[in-house]
Amino acid sequence: MNKSKLHKEKPSVLKDDVAALSREKLVAAREEAVHMREDAESLREDAVDIREDSILLREKKAALREREIHAAEAIQVAIDEHIKKLQQANANLVVATMKARKLTDEVESTNTQMERAMVIAEKANLAKSVLVSTMSHELRTPLSAILGFAQLLEIGSPPPTDIQTERLHQIINAGWYLLELINGVLDDHATIESGERPLILSPVPLETTMIECLAMIESQAQKRDIHINFIPFDKTWFVNAERIRVKQVLINLLTNAIKYNREHGAVEVKCTCTQERIRISIKDSGVGLPPEKMAQLFQPFNRLGQEFGVEEGTGIGLVITKQLIELMGGSINVESTVGVGSVFSVELNRAEGSATCL
């Protein structure tokens, strides 16, 4: 009985053990399956992360490639622009080289022309020197004869009448003035060639000088029936100047006032003064000058259209007058009204010791 029961109990225990073992294995298998599922889930998450990283990496590579493309394009644009600038610079350099070559040719041509002009100027200067010397000599000879005969007539027998004596004095004074001018031309020529033109300034009696000038141009005024109104002024007024130059200036201005005046016209000579200067005004009743001609008044050899008229002239009288006045420290001013006339005013420095103005 007992053995029979024992044999019956063993298979039952074995089944229980097998069942327990199966359950354990099943549990283990389940746990392993859970772990595997967790591992698979983790792998899937890792795969997702890898894919995301791969996408980001591809996007970064694409962005980097795009930047590289843009940078390459910008570099190419800069290179193209630089090449254009180099080409433009090269073209400018070629043009500049051509201009420089042309300018060099022009400079060489100008230098050649200047050398020729210098040769011509030297020849002209030599001819001028010969002409001045010859003319001065040729003028002196007949002028000396005129002065000599005038002096003989003055002291001859029978003695001249009062009117003849006055005319002889005018001839003699004009002759000596002309002789002084001729000597002055030679002196000026010598000083100009040496680069100097000094003036010897001294007190010059204005009234005496003015009367001498008026006497020399009186015959010109009478020919055209032009009345000269000389307004008297203080005899003690002196200007600081060179006497022969003052006479030259006044005779030039008075001659112009007569020459370019109307028939039966008038010339007014007036002197005024300040504490430092004396003004000599010469007013004519000529046709006057418009503003455009006033601007050309002191241009050398410009006669303002009078070269086609009957009056003789060279167009340098006023230029010389202005230069002489300025050399003596003075100034010249002109006012003109068309149809009324012109006023030429000369201002010179008063000499020390000259009487005060009233």
Structure description:
The strands form 2 sheets. A 5-stranded mixed sheet has the order 2-4-5-7-6, covered by helices on one side. Strands 1-3 form a two-stranded antiparallel sheet. Strand 4 and strand 5 (277-284) form a beta hairpin. With 358 residues, it is of the alpha+beta class. Helix content is 66%, strand content 12%. The chain has a domain at 217-349: 2-Layer Sandwich (Heat Shock Protein 90), CATH 3.30.565.10. It has 6 helices and 7 strands.
List keywords for this structure.
7 strands; two-stranded antiparallel ribbon; 66% helix; alpha+beta; Heat Shock Protein 90; five-stranded mixed sheet; 358 residues
Proportion in helices: 55-70%
User: How much of the polypeptide forms β-strand, as a percent range?
Assistant: 5-15%
Instruction: Tell me the structural class.
Output: alpha+beta
CATH topology of the domain at 217-349: Heat Shock Protein 90
Biggest sheet overview: 5 strands, mixed
